[in-house]
Amino acid sequence: MPKINKDVCIGCGTCASLCPEVFELSDAGKAKVKENAPEGVSCIQEAIDSCPVQAISK
Ligand code: SF4
């Protein structure tokens, strides 16, 4: 599953809008991986590539 570097994430929401089944914004305004998120979804890579601060890694 992908990992979010919360120190780097700026909470822009791009990952959550591109891949809502895997990413969501937490109450703290940072991205997080949803519980029970499906693995191997192609939009994960899309989110990694689209994050403006490269906060998502696999
Ligand atoms: S795309 Fe990157 S910076 Fe934006 S919310 Fe997701 S992890 Fe954070």
Question: In brief, what are we looking at here?
Answer:
The protein is an alpha+beta fold and 58 residues long. The protein contains 2 helices and 4 strands. It has one domain: Alpha-Beta Plaits (2-Layer Sandwich), CATH 3.30.70.20.
Explained architecture:
The protein is of the alpha+beta class. The chain has a single domain (3-57), classed as Alpha-Beta Plaits. The protein contains 2 helices and 4 strands; from the N terminus they run E-H-E-E-H-E. A two-stranded antiparallel sheet has the order 1-4. Iron/sulfur cluster is lined by residues 4, 9-15, 31, 51-53, 55-56.
How would you summarize the topology of this molecule?
Layout: E1 3-4, H1 14-18, E2 23-25, E3 31-33, H2 43-50, E4 56-57
Antiparallel strand pairs: 1-4, 2-3
Bound molecules: iron/sulfur cluster (SF4).
Iron/sulfur cluster (SF4) binds at residues 4, 9-15, 31, 51-53, 55-56.
CATH class: Alpha Beta
In what range is the share of β-strand residues? Answer: 15-25%
In total, the number of domains comes to 1
Mean pLDDT: 97
By DSSP (H or I, 4+ residues per run), the number of helices equals 2
Rounded to the nearest angstrom, the radius of gyration is 10 Å
